Each structure stands twice: as C-alpha cells, then as structure tokens.
Amino acid sequence: MTPEWTTALPDWERRILAGESLIPPPLFPAEAKAGLDVFRSLTVKDIAGSPTIGDSMRPWVLDFAASIFGAYDAETGRRLIREFFLLISKKNGKSTIAAGIMLTALLRNWRPSAEFYILAPTLEVANNSFYPARDMVYADPELREVLHVQENWKKITHRTTKAFLKVVAADAETVSGKKTTGLLIDEHWLFGKRANAASMLAEASGGLVSRPEGFVISLTTQSDDPPAGVFRDKLAYARAVRSGAVKDRKFLPVLYEFPDAVIEAKGYLEPQNWRVTNPNLGASVDEEWLADKLTEAQHGDKSALNVFLAKHLNVEIGMSLRSDRWAGADFWQHAEEPLTLEGLIESSEVACIGIDGGGNDDLLGLYVIGRERNTGLWLGWGRAWVHRIVNEKRKSIASTLADFERDGDLVFYGDAQGFVPKRRTALAVIDGVTERVDLVPENISDIVKVCKQVDEAGILHAIGLDPAGVGTVVDALSAADIGSPDDEERFGRRRVVGVSQGFSLMRGIKTIESKIANGTFIPARQALMSWCVGNARCEQKANYVMISKAVSGVGKIDPLMALFDAAWLMADNPEPPQTSVYTAERGLITFG
Predict the structure, then answer these.
(1) In this structure, what CATH number is given to the domain that contains residue 530?
(2) Phi-psi region of 326 (alpha: psi -120 to 50; beta: other; left: phi over 0)
(3) 303 assigned to some structural domain
(4) Where on the phi/psi map is residue 458: left (φ > 0), alpha (ψ -120 to 50), or beta?
(5) Contacts with 583 (C-beta within 8 Å, 6 or more apart), sequence order
(6) Domain hosting residue 202, numbered range
(7) SS3 assignment, position 285
C-alpha cells in the first residue's frame, strides 16, 4: 500500500529555532534500516581515531540518509521521493555525507552496470568528494573485496554487478550520454555561475527517465554572491515546496537557514544562534573558531564578511557590499517595493528618464524616476538591453544576465549568433514617394517605446543621457517627436539633454543617496538594479568621490548610471507638464 506523505514543512521556522528535526521519517522503514546499516558502518578517516559514520555523525545526518534510502519501495522497484536538496553551512560534513550516501547506494544497488555519479563544479571539489569515498573502501577489508578503486579515473566499481560510482569534475569532463541511476550534485551554488549549467545538469540526469529507482541529491552551501542561474532557481523552488506553495511530494528540501525575522534583526551574529545553520556545531564545527573568523571578517573588507556569512552561517547575500561600495547600497534593498512602469506612470505627476550605455558587451540602461502625486515621493523603475555577444565576452556573468531576462528587466538583442544586420537603411513609400529611411536597431526602438509611453501619459519632463556615443538614441527620439529642434518653442524647454559625467554627476548621485536613506526614493524591486547597485565602486578623485564603469570591473552598472542621470534632472524639482481641461480620460492632452 502506497503511504501518504508530504515534503512541505510550513512550521520550519519554529522547528529550526527549537532545534527540532527538519527531516520527515522514512516512507519505508525497512529499506531505511537496511541502507543505514551499511551507511553507519563506513569509516571516516579524516576524523581523529577513524570512527564509523554511526559513531561520529549527529542524528540529523542519519535522518537525512534514512529519508533517501527509505524512499525506495522494494515491492514496485520505484523511489517515491526522487530529488533531495540539502542547504547547509560549510564544515558540517557535506563531503563525508556525499561519499557515504553514494557508496551505500552503490552497495545496495541491484541493477547490473548501473551508473552513479557525483558531479562537482571543479576538480578540487571533485577530489573533496572522491577521497572520503576512496578511504572508506580502503579502511574496510570486506569492501576492498567487493569494490575496485581506480584513483586515476576517480571511479569505484562493484566487482559483481559491474555498477560503478564515478566522481566527475564539470570543468574537466563531458557529462553527456550518462545512463545515470543516482546523481549527487556537489556545491550546487557554483553551478549557478556557469552559463551552460542547466543543459549540463539535464544531460547528467537524463538517464533517470528509464530508472524508476533513481534519484538526484543536491548538496550545497550558500553562494558568496547573490544566488544566480540554476542555483537561484533550485533554491527558490525548494523554499516554495517547503512552504507548501508548490505541491511536489517527490522533492524533499532540507534547508538550514535563518528565518527572515532573525536575518532582519541580524541575529545570525549572535553565537547562540549559530546552531541554526550548523547542526554539527560542537562536532565538525568549532564555535570558538567561528567566533575568531567572524571577528576577523568584521574588521576587514566588507566582502570578507559577506563570504563568512554566506559560507559559515548560510546568510543569503543580497548585494556584494564591499568597502568601496556606493553609500546608497546600504539602504537599497530595504527601500525596494513592488512597482511596474505602468504603476509608476499612473502614480506620477512628472517624470524624468536617464539613459546610459557603452560598448556591445555593456548594458544599455534606462531608468525612469517619477514624482508621486500628493506625496512628492520619488518612484523608480529600470530596464536594460544587451547584445548577445556578452555571453561570449563575459561568460562569468552570463547566467546572472539570463536570470534578469527571465525577470523581464533585461532584453537581449541580436540574432542567435550575436550579430545584427549590417544594413541600416531601407526603401519605403511615404505619401506616394519612395524614400530611403533609417532602420532603428531593436534595442533603440525599445527604448523609444518606453520614452513614448511616459510622454504620451503627459508626465515627461526631460530625458538625460551621457553625451558620449548616444547619437543613435538622440536621432531615434527626435524621429519619435521627443527632443525635436522645436521643443523649446513648444514646451519651453529642451526635452533631451546631455548630462555631464564625472564631478558634474555628483548632484544626481548625492541626491539619490540622501533620498534613499530618508525613505523618499522608492525603487522598484528588481534583481537587475540590486546587482548594479552592488557592482558600483567608488573612486576618490581630489575632493570628491566618483562612481565609474572603469572601477566596477566586469560587474555592469549602466542602469544605475541612468538612474543618476534621471536624478540629475529631477533634482531641479520640475513642475508637472501643463495640461488642458481635456484630460487623459477624455483622450486629448496638450502641453504648455
């Protein structure tokens, strides 16, 4: 009879603070016991005295292993929970767990020539997983009789079934064509930084389709950067299953992380709370060592503290806040609220737009600041465009950019090969006359559409651009009747203006710093903008501080610079564009 079960744990916050188990009991106790009998007997060579797993591991480790072994229904040959995700702080025995579980799976396996893999992102991580498994075999005479270790191949083969366990480094070997029965993905967070990780993991787990007893296990610490790519997606899914928002009984999330209330109160800095994300505290994790490392990190570069918090306390990094960070970064994520461009336009009496961009491997950023009616609050929303060539030139951020595209805040342009048509003009019949007209690139066309959307709402004051290399944008705006030569006659002002960079931009930068700190600037909640804010680096120039792309490295900041351009204009406190008695509701808007 199939048991009833759920992998949701909606009261996880109470449980983790109370030190209660986060892991449900096994579905098939007899299978769990049989697996644990093998698992507990394995020797751990890197612990003094070389004890067995059963003698050295905390109960949570045995519970996690039991949930894997005990999800298998021996009568049907089917595993009812097929995927397991463990998020845990560094030094909590992750490599030992990986080696022990996969070695046990190899020994308990019945399928001839079955393939078990530990997939590691790098050769170093692969060694960390293989060496404990190798040592477990060498430490037991019976296992040496049953299993054959090939160190040069990082492979352990069962002499009878010919099944094998192999540790594969993703940066050294291909993972295509695997007939996988069991797959363990080590340090999932590092795969999040790889542009091809999704297809790689799909290839590695493809064989599970025809193996109903198969499984996938992901073991990981938090990322030392904001989660990205496949790791961001998997972590979000695991949290959704845990809360019950997603019903997936075949997926078991076990997440050792702090509840939001503890994060907001910075309770993770209190030693009495460290057990929350370190269930091995007092065993493989030393509290005094953690205290010393925290003190060292707190007195060093801000990035060092972020890495410590991410790796040893599983605190998710929202932005990469370094010592040379922009001052507004400390307040950015606290100020964010859900906001769309349409919502900003509807709420605002006047708006300014900033545009900033660079080369083909840079973002072309646009940012809209609207001043809210009645309250005077500034509202912000941004978007960016980028040539597909960036995925080849800046592979380290390709998966992050793909995340922003899925969010709808970044648009790639160019064809699949990264090229755009060389032809820039076309023949068109206008009023019966054939004329040669310019073709507007798709990214510029999109920018014009956003600007027209704001303009047609009757709230556009002006558009500010970095004067360098914006001729195409200016021409396209003029063709759309924004920034035309007669703007001053029609509107009493120029509506497309150059915003000098460097020292002159400080007015926009300092204005945003002040307003985001005092709560009068509310940016839209956009991962793209949080990333750009975290990338911004300050450089001392004589008697002022400058933010520039040159000191921000591979991290892009163009949409943030567009924000500063818009703020430079809005700092003039522009009057709302005058409208006639024929309002937007009546379909006609006139400008004074």
Answers:
(1) 3.30.420
(2) beta
(3) no
(4) left
(5) 589
(6) 12-264
(7) strand
Amino acid at site 257 = E
In whole angstroms, give the CA distance from residue 392 to residue 583.
Answer: 49
Q: 277 with 257: CB under 8 angstroms? A: yes
- Provide φ and ψ at 342, rounded to 5°: -65, -40
512: which 2 tokens?
């945003």
Alpha-carbon Rg for the chain in angstroms: 29
H or E stretch including 451?
helix 442-456
Residues of the chain with pLDDT under 50: 422-425, 427, 436-437, 551, 580-592
Find the CATH number of the domain harbouring 79.
Answer: 3.40.50.300
**Cα(530)–Cα(51) distance, rounded to whole angstroms?**
47
What is the per-residue pLDDT for 544?
A: 59
> In one letter, which amino acid is 202?
A
b/e per residue 161-174 (b: at least 16 CB within 10 A) = bebbbbbbbbeeee
| 209 and 106 share one domain | yes
Cβ within 8 Å of residue 256, ≥6 positions away: 16, 22, 87, 88, 89, 92, 276, 277, 278, 279, 314
Domain shared by 468 and 346, yes or no? yes
Decide: pTM greater than 0.85: no
Tokens representing 121 are: 């992102």
d(CA 228, CA 226): 6
For residue 311, give Cα distances in angstroms to 223, 225, 349: 7, 11, 46
Q: What is the pLDDT of residue 592?
A: 32
Is the Cβ–Cβ distance between 197 and 399 less than 8 Å? yes
Let me know if 81 is exposed, middle or buried by CB neighbors in 10 A (0-12, 13-18, 19+).
Answer: buried
Q: Is the distance from CB of 243 to CB of 259 less than 8 angstroms?
A: no
Report the pLDDT value the prediction gives residue 155, as an integer from 0 to 100: 96
**Do you know the residue count of the chain?**
592
Q: Whose CA is closest to 86, among 176, 6, 186, 174? A: 186
- What are the C-alpha distances in Å from 61 to residues 22, 55, 183, 187? 11, 12, 18, 17
Pair of tokens at residue 218: 């992901």
If one counts the domains in the chain, the total is 2
Residues 6+ apart with CB under 8 A from 79: 71, 72, 73, 212, 213, 214, 215
Per the CB < 8 A criterion, the answer to whether 93 and 280 are in contact is: yes
Q: CA–CA separation, 256 vs 536, rounded Å?
A: 31
User: What was the pLDDT predicted at 164?
Assistant: 97
Whole-angstrom distance, CA of residue 317 vs CA of residue 227: 8
**Is 15 within 8 Å of 22 (Cβ atoms)?**
yes
Residue 139: CA count within 13 A, CB half-sphere: 18
Does the residue 420 lie in any domain? yes
Distance CA 372, CA 338 (A): 15
**Model pLDDT, residue 123:** 87
pLDDT at 251: 97
Cα–Cα distance for residue pair 128/120, rounded to 1 Å: 9
User: Which of 394, 388, 475 minimizes the C-alpha distance to 438?
Assistant: 475
The two beta strands, 348-357 and 460-465, are parallel
Rounded CA-CA distance 359/361 in Å is 5
The predicted pLDDT at position 541 comes to 63
